[in-house]
Design goal:
six-stranded mixed β-barrel, single chain
């Protein structure tokens, strides 16, 4: 750094600290802009990680088969279920790329024990559900193929349901009632929390055959029970695309489809990519909106610097009269603008990081402080100070010293 530049920095610091209130108000736009950019980018990345964790919690190498098409769902159409237990069994038998198949038949029922009762989602599925959906049994066991074959009335409770009905009592072996039918509790799953708005702990699992023949089928005997979805685990990440292709072809053959499919096969990666795209675009939009504050802050700095040049006209004339060049005056005012913008940027970064940590403390979102966002914010602040400070600095540098000294 040259001696002249060091001297200009010193003069700028003395001038700015002599008018602390004005300097603080001038920096306000940059402070708000930087704090907003840091917070928006950091929280956007936190939201992205949160969504990724939610998907990972569903299982690994997952594929989902659901009734209807994406276009139909976007148009608000409620698809009639085209999936049956026979479809799930065919996928399990005939698709070599899959490791597990878990059909899901879901309905909401009231479950009771003694004088206590609660209303939860009851999911009819197969023993492979725990493997496919990465759900561990922490008490007792899951149901097995024999339970499915015999339509046994056995139930595995989610941990929240177990606490609601039994408190601290061991529920294994107890009898609960679902639609006035007695089910024996044989297991309790681990805590998984909520995923995409659904509490995975307030749930009851029963054999899918029991669900079809005794719960859903009993309520509406004229309608054949159908599946809400089929969760499938591919053998490994490399098998996911092959499994998706094979499942689609198999179901088209089974459903005699010549035109549009009446089902949709989506992989976990497809859904994750879609979610990443949405959160990424949202982050960019929020950061761009916050960036407008930086622009407004830069205009504020230029406005105050123009006022400062007017107020200090005699000072500028005196400096030029004793030998200061245009370049010296230009540097002095430009440095003042850059220092204002950079200092405002640093304060904004501190506030943005603090706000992000605060939000991370009180919400499920991870507080991810992005180093790239910090570097970008500092760079943009300096550039704004330079860009918006040059015009008033040039005005000061072009002043005639005699006219400046005569000014009031």
């Amino acid at each position: 750094m040259s001696v002249d530049l060091v001297e200009s920095v010193g003069m700028a610091v003395r001038t700015l600290t002599a008018n602390k209130l004005r300097s603080g108000l001038t920096m306000l736009g940059i402070i708000i802009g930087n704090a907003s950019v840091i917070a928006m980018v950091s929280l956007g990345q936190g939201a992205q990680r949160f969504v990724n964790q939610q998907f990972q919690g569903l299982g690994t190498n997952l594929l989902f088969v659901v009734p209807g098409t994406d276009q139909g769902r976007r148009l608000g159409a409620v698809p009639a279920s085209s999936l049956t237990l026979a479809d799930a069994e065919a996928i399990k038998r005939q698709v070599p790329s899959v490791a597990g198949v878990a059909p899901q038949m879901v309905d909401r029922f009231r479950i009771s024990w003694a004088s206590k009762d609660t209303q939860v989602n009851v999911t009819g599925t197969t023993p492979e559900y725990t493997l496919v959906r990465n759900t561990a049994i922490v008490q007792g066991r899951s149901f097995n193929d024999l339970n499915l074959d015999r339509n046994d009335r056995v139930a595995v409770l989610g941990p929240a349901t177990a606490r609601e009905l039994f408190g601290n009592r061991d529920p294994i072996g107890e009898k609960v009632r679902i639609r006035n039918l007695s089910f024996r509790v044989i297991g309790v799953t681990e805590e998984k929390g909520s995923a995409f708005g659904q509490n995975q702990d307030e749930i009851v699992y029963v054999p899918v055959t029991t669900m079809a023949n005794q719960l859903v089928g009993r309520r509406n005997s004229r309608r054949s029970p159908s599946l809400q979805s089929i969760s499938i685990s591919a053998r490994d990440p490399k098998s996911i695309r092959a499994a998706q292709f094979q499942i689609t072809n198999l179901l088209r053959l089974r459903h005699n489809i010549r035109g549009e499919d009446d089902f949709t096969v989506r992989s976990q990666q497809d859904l994750l990519q879609t979610a990443d795209n949405v959160t990424g675009i949202l982050t960019i939009v929020l950061a761009a909106t916050a960036g407008i504050s930086l622009l407004v802050g830069g205009i504020g700095i230029m406005n105050i610097m123009l006022v400062s040049v007017t107020e200090r006209t005699q000072e500028i004339g005196l400096r030029k009269a004793i030998g200061a060049t245009r370049a010296d005056v230009l540097t002095q005012f430009t440095v003042e603008a850059v220092i204002l913008a950079t200092a405002g940027g640093m304060i904004g970064i501190v506030l943005g990081v603090g706000g992000t940590l605060l939000v991370g403390t009180f919400t499920p979102l991870d507080a991810i402080i992005s180093p790239a966002a910090i570097v970008l914010a500092v760079s943009v602040s300096g550039a704004i100070g330079l860009g918006f400070g040059v015009f008033p600095a040039r005005s000061a540098a072009r002043l005639d010293p005699i006219v400046a000294l005569r000014s009031q």
